[in-house]
Design brief:
With 403 residues, this protein is of the alpha/beta class. The protein has 10 helices and 27 strands. The protein has 2 domains: 3-151, 2-Layer Sandwich (Copper Amine Oxidase, Chain A, domain 1), CATH 3.30.457.10; 165-401, Alpha-Beta Barrel (TIM Barrel). Helix 4 (183-195) packs across helix 10 (394-401) and helix 8 packs parallel to helix 9.
């Protein structure tokens, strides 16, 4: 491999995490970037004309040995031939004892180190192409290929916003139903969100924000959610989100069904870091006759909150616990991660459901109650969402977000 290219890799490893310092940045000089390396998305921002990217994933992908001294904040990166030594708070370092210096100091944001990509490419004479029409920087050398997708949004995790909005989708296509959003309309809505400065976040971001008063988010965070896990989420929506450099959280009914994407497809989307998969029960997205907890008869009530005809209250509690436990296990085994978020089918829940979810370790519960979320309201663990109806235009959605 070309020596200069190897040095680029080493410099990109600058992101072994350290303590998160207080960081300030001018909004007028920041933009968001999406970096795709081996089909995995990562996010950064532009500051003072320099594209800064997080580089922890680069070190993971290349499998280099990284040693970090928490006391001195020294980083040692090595392979069989070379040793690179850096310090988290310095623009200087050395390769095999030879010093080098960068003109822009890396930034630590929310525990990740960001390094200026274009400066590194130019000074190491690594060819790249800038596509003005799509705002992309493309690097494609030998077996190394990645694209930086630059977007004009404030994405850096530097703020403690007062409001967190969440929007809810279900199915996509031209079916004349309130649940179906046409793909063309979806694109227009994403473009509006970008123009308005929204940055998509994950469920885990919301959990961290709720639990940690010092956890930072983008200035205008948006939890983009999709319920049920219809196949169109994988075939149509997933590629569109990658194209726009945005993320979504999909709540999957985990029992296999032809109308939904498979667990293998779920793992592919999860591994891309574009989609976060969480729970929507195993087979409780149905309705039934029976009574509610107060003993009042209901016809066609949500299965999760209805005691079925002939079922005791204790039977009901065992049923919902068994369903959620099974769904959690299915998803965790398929995705290889902790499943700790549940979206209620039909938005329905009661105090028995809340008790069971706490026992099973769910940390965030997604409702259909309209409105926005605050640090105070999130202490209940319940998330409010705006339902994006099929007939909504981008202007309709913008109006809902500005209420």
């Amino acid at each position: 491999m070309h020596k200069n290219l190897f040095y680029l890799f080493l410099l990109l490893f600058f992101s072994f995490i350290a303590l998160v310092p207080s960081v300030t940045a001018s909004e007028s000089t920041k933009q968001e970037s999406e970096v795709t390396i081996n089909n995995k998305a990562m996010y950064g921002y532009i500051e003072n004309g320099r594209t800064l990217i997080p580089v922890r994933y680069v070190s993971e992908a290349l499998g280099m040995e990284v040693l970090y001294d928490a006391k001195t904040k020294d980083i040692t990166i090595k392979n069989d031939e070379d040793i690179l030594k850096l310090n988290v708070n310095s623009t200087t370092g050395n390769i095999n004892g030879l010093p080098f210096k960068m003109d822009v100091q890396p930034r630590l944001i929310q525990g990740r180190t960001y390094i200026p990509l274009r400066f590194v490419l130019e000074n190491l004479s690594i060819p790249f192409q800038y596509h003005e029409d799509t705002s992309k920087i493309v690097v494609n050398n030998d077996n190394v290929s990645f694209t930086v997708d630059i977007k004009p949004i404030t994405s850096a995790y530097l703020y403690r916003p007062e409001k967190i909005y969440s929007i809810m989708y279900h199915e996509f296509g031209d079916n004349p139903s309130s649940l179906y959003v046409p793909l063309g309309t979806f694109r227009e809505q994403l473009e509006m969100l970008i123009q308005q400065g929204y940055e998509t976040i994950t469920d885990q971001d919301v959990i961290n924000y709720k639990n940690n008063p010092s956890y930072r988010l983008p200035k205008k965070p948006l939890l983009l959610t999709i319920d049920d896990g219809y196949l169109s989420n994988y075939t149509d929506v997933y590629p569109i989100l990658k194209e726009y450099g945005l993320r979504a959280n999909i709540y999957l009914i985990s029992k296999s069904h032809p109308i939904r994407f498979t667990l293998e497809q779920a793992r592919e989307m999860e591994d891309s870091r574009v989609i976060n998969i969480q729970d929507h029960t195993y087979e409780h997205h149905r309705r039934t006759d029976g009574v509610n907890l107060a003993g009042i008869p209901v016809s066609g009530g949500p299965l999760l909150t209805t005691i079925k005809t002939g079922e005791t209250r204790q039977d009901y509690i065992h049923r919902i616990r068994d369903d959620l436990k099974k769904s959690k296990e299915v998803l965790e085994n398929a995705l290889g991660k902790k499943v700790n978020v549940l979206a209620f089918p039909f938005g329905a829940y009661n105090h028995e459901v809340l008790k069971v979810t706490r026992e099973l370790g769910y940390e965030l519960l997604i409702t259909t109650e309209p409105g926005y979320n605050t640090y105070e309201s999130l202490q209940t663990g319940l998330v409010k969402r705006i339902n994006v109806r099929g007939e909504y235009t981008s202007e309709d959605l913008k109006r809902e977000l500005n209420r």
